[in-house]
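We modelled each protein-ligand pair independently. The example shown here corresponds to the pyridoxal-5'-phosphate entry; the chain sequence is given first, followed by the ligand as SMILES.
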Amino acid sequence: MLKAMPNFDALEPAYLRDQYSIKWNLYPEGVLPLWVADMDFPIAKEIKQALINRLEYNVGYPHMTGDPRLVSAILEQQAGFGWTGLQPEHLMFVSSVVPGLYASILGLTHAGDEVLTQTPIYPPFLMSIRDHGRVALENPMLCDNNGWSIDFAHLETLVTDSSKVFMLCNPQNPTGRVFTRAELEQLAAFVLRHDLLVISDELHAMLILEGEHIPFASLSPEIAARTVTLTGPCKAFNTAGIGGGVILSNNLDLLNRIKAATKGLMGHPSSFSLEMWRVGLESGGTWLEETLHYIRANRDFLDSWLRQHLPEVRCIPAQGTYLAWMDFTKFSFAKDLHKILIEEAKVGLNDGPPYGRGNEGWLRINFATSRAILTEALERMERCIRARVD
Ligand SMILES: Cc1ncc(COP(=O)(O)O)c(C=O)c1O
């Protein structure tokens, strides 16, 4: 039976703590979980209704090439971002984005090849490179008072003849960076100079808080010819348990390489994901706008709260996503803080090390929750940290 839906301000931990949710069940009862990238908000009513309708009349095999209405909606969305010239055959539907990242690594590289990426980075980037014997070259982002930026000088020192792919995350999880056209063009010049292919994960493209989303493949025909882009519905519409994703490329040869390397392994897209994705793109705009409004306000609240209560913590406000990357390294116990916060403060965040080398003492927070839960979690953290510092 469907539970009555709360509004965003009135979310109750008891309501959210459902057996089904890994976010709310990984840590012991009483811990406020602000970690894995699920929002605590109810999904759009249009999507909920579409899923109920789908259950009532057909849950058979979907088209492997997607519902033509969904294909049109995706092409239209990308054209709206400035990526024109995509055709239906440029889409390869996948069960979700992470299998698409692994499939792309398998299809576009060989064991021993090097793959460059910016750290800190969503851990499955590094896993998809290393799990099949490829070599991850980590290029740490620079962080100063102006925010996060790409260290192009260091990037040049990393690249070798064995480097084959640059793996981009835009908007970037966990820093929340939305890269500017100038930065992406500089990156494009780099990949052209070193003859690299690009895997661009743009799953958070609809969660823009500042600036605009620019698909990497939209920069030029030369760049489109060497790029595969991954996206899906689950971050924008909060439907991670349903799955769904797509690999997009103007270059059919790249898609064929991915298909050949993963023949028989990729399953078929879920009919629920295709349906909710279509309805989300066609009718979920108002929900998304309201949700982004709430997330933006939480982002600003987090920023001013930290300045006031925990000024030792460095945290650049996210330009996209609903995640923030927080630097606790001013505290002597920072590298143990993830565990301390769970055990003593009863707050569950993501620990830094899986996001790449040198991230001890950093934690990721997910602020897509009610203001009350966010405030309670921050106050618990403050009390715990102050009890150790003062
Ligand atoms: C950048 C990025 N890519 C992929 C994923 C996971 O995608 P999926 O659930 O579609 O496999 C996430 C989840 O947080 C993410 O942040």
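The pocket of pyridoxal-5'-phosphate is lined by residues 37, 96-98, 122, 169, 173, 201, 203, 232, 234, 240, 245 (CB under 6 Å).
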